[in-house]
Each structure stands twice: as C-alpha cells, then as structure tokens.
Amino acid sequence: MEVRRIKKEDREDFKELLLLADEQWSMVKRYLDRGEMYGLFPEGGLDAVSICVVTKEDEHIYEIKSFATAKAFQKKGYGRMLMKYVIGQYRGAGGILYVGTGNTSSTIGFYESCGFTRSHVVRNFFTDNYDHPIFEDGIQLRDMIYLSMKL
C-alpha cells in the first residue's frame, strides 16, 4: 500500500468514497478544494482504499475531514495506516489536529485508539447543517463530537 496526495483536479473522481464519510455532497464541496487530500492505494493501483482531506483552519490548527475507508477494506488496518501517515505529515507543524464525528462509539473509539482525545461538542451540527437526517450505526446524529491531538 502507498499513500498519495491527490491533485485538486482529480478529487471529484473519489466522490463515492468521500460520500461514505460525509453523505451530503454540498457539505464536502465546502472544503474539498481548500485542503490537502490523501489516499491509500494498493501499490500501482488507481482505486483508493482509504481517503481523507486535511484543512488548515487557522494558524497551527488543522482538521481531518471526510476520513473514509471503502467497505470491503474496513476493519483490516487500512484506515489506521492512512491515519498514521497523515498524523506524521502534520506532526512537525506544531499546533493541534482535530477530527469531528458523530456520537457513535465505534467511530470515536477508532479515533481515540489513534491517539485523539475528546475536545469539544458542536450542538445540533448535523440537524442544523444537513438537509436530511444522518444515521450511523442506527443512531441519528445530532451533535458533532470533536477530538484533538497535539502536533
């Protein structure tokens, strides 16, 4: 497996995978072009196994967005592989790396196992910003739970 930085002009080619993490395309488009996009690919392959976008929100403040792994590759360590790479890319930048997610134990548990700790909550984020109810693991998402890591 190899991690590649994805060029801006190629990002929409990964729409299906991006929508696994954020199912409303209009929300993805808000940040897709203003960050760096990374994909984990089989050696020489064209289809990403795992993908994410990292945005710079402020001086020394970064946020991981649309972190997703294709269903066939979930729970096999590929997401963790990409996360380790991304953390390594920003480790020397100093500051804080955030990731936001819904309030589901499986997703929060994954981020915590990668070294993130709970930071803060944005109340009603999903109900206020999406045009339809969002469900994960059978739970309707309302609040955005942010986790952080010092870089």
Report on the structure:
This protein has 151 residues and is an alpha+beta fold. Helices cover 26% and strands 35% of the residues. It is built from 5 helices and 9 strands. The protein has helices at residues 15-21, 25-29, 78-91, 105-113, 125-129, and strands at 2-6, 35-41, 50-58, 61-69, 96-101, 117-122, 135-136, 139-140, 144-150. The strands form 2 sheets. It has a 7-stranded mixed β-sheet, with helices on both faces. A two-stranded antiparallel ribbon has the order 7-8. It starts with a strand and ends with a strand. The mean pLDDT is 92.
By CATH reckoning, the class would read Alpha Beta
Over the alpha carbons, how many angstroms does the gyration radius reach?
15 Å
Identify low-pLDDT runs: none
Count the beta strands: 9
CATH homologous superfamily caption: Gcn5-related N-acetyltransferase (GNAT)
Span of the ends, CA to CA: 25 Å
